[in-house]
Design goal:
Pfam families: HU-CCDC81_bac_1, HU-CCDC81_bac_2, SPOR. Keywords: Membrane, Transmembrane, Transmembrane helix. This is SPOR domain-containing protein. It is a single chain. This protein is an alpha+beta fold. Among the domains are: 132 residues, IHF-like DNA-binding proteins (HU Protein, Chain A, Irregular), CATH 4.10.520; 86 residues, Alpha-Beta Plaits, CATH 3.30.70. Helices cover 39% and strands 23% of the residues. The strands form five sheets. Strands 10, 13, 14, 15 and 16 form a five-stranded antiparallel sheet that branches. The radius of gyration is 53 Å and the shape is flat. The relative contact order is 0.08. About 11% of the residues have low confidence.
Length: 333
Amino acid sequence: MNNTAKYISELLYRYECVILPGFGAFLTRRQPAEIQESTHSFFPPQKLISFNSQLKNNDGLLANYIASAENISYTDAVAKIQRYVLSLNEKMAQGKRLELENIGAFFTSVEDTLQFEPLQEVNYLTEAFGLHTFVSPTIKREIEVKREAYKEEVEALEEVAPLAFTPEKRRERPYLQYAATAAIILGIGGFFGLKQISDSTISYNNQEWKKANAEIENRIQEATFEISNPLPAITLNLTKEESTKTVESKNESVVVTGKYHVVAGAFRIASNADKKVRKLKAKGFDARLIEVNKYGLHQVVYQSYSDRIEALQALRKIKREESPRAWLLVQEL
C-alpha cells in the first residue's frame, strides 16, 4: 500500500510547499477569518491549498520524511515516490478523476489541461485547530416593534389630552460656591507656602556650600607632586659656567648651584614651606626654597646638584629613607 498522499497531507500542516517529484508542488496560503453577511456564515482562518505543475524537482523533503516514517533508505523512498507518480500519470492518461486523501482531486478539463480542486473540509492551519465553519441564525429584534407600538399609543393619548410641561426651576446651591472659593484660597496659600519653603531651602544650601568651601581652603596646606619615572636627562656638550643665584627667604639667603633639584614638596602657604625647610635642615640637608611654580606653590628642595648621576643617587636614598614622594626637578634657576 502506498501512503504517499497521507505523508503529503501531514507535511502540509508544517510547510508551505511540498513537492511531489515528477508531478508538481502543493502550495499553501494563509487566509484570515471571514464573515459572509448574506448567509450569516463564519469561517475561521485557514490555509488554502493550490497546485503548481511546474515545480517538479526533488527537494528531498518528501523523500526524507517517507524514509524516516517507514524506516527505509532514502533511495527506496525515492523509488516509492516514482512508482506512485507513475500510477497517477497512468490514471490521468485514462481520463480518470484522481482523489488524494485529505488533499483534493485532479481531473482533466475540456481544454485538456490538468485541474486541481482542493478539499475544503480539512484546515491545515494548526492555529485554528478545533475551529469550524458555522451559520448564525437571523436575529429578530422585537424592540423596534415595541417602540413603534408605544409611539402610536402616545400619539393617540396626545390627541385626546394634550400634555403641558412646566419647566422646573433649578434649585440654587450656594454651598457649592463657598466650596469653590475655599478651594481657590487653599490653592493660592499652598503655592506661596511652597515658594517660601523653596526659598529658605536654597538659602540654607548656599550657606552650607560657603562653609564647606571655607573648610576646604583651610585644610589645603600642602600639594606634593610625584613623578615615579622621571624623564631621562639630555646631555649636551656645551661649556657653560655654573650660574650662581641667591634665593632669599623670610629669615635667610642661600646660594643656589646646579640644575638638578631633589624636591621635597610644594606648599600653597609660604609659612608652611619655611617650616619644612627648617625641619630638613635640622636633619642635615642643605634644604632651601626655590622659585614659585606656575601653580603658585612654594617649592622646597632637599638639595641641588650640578651632576645628574649624583642627583639620582641622592634621590634614590631620600625616597628610601625619608619620603617616597620626593622627585627630581631639572631646571636652571
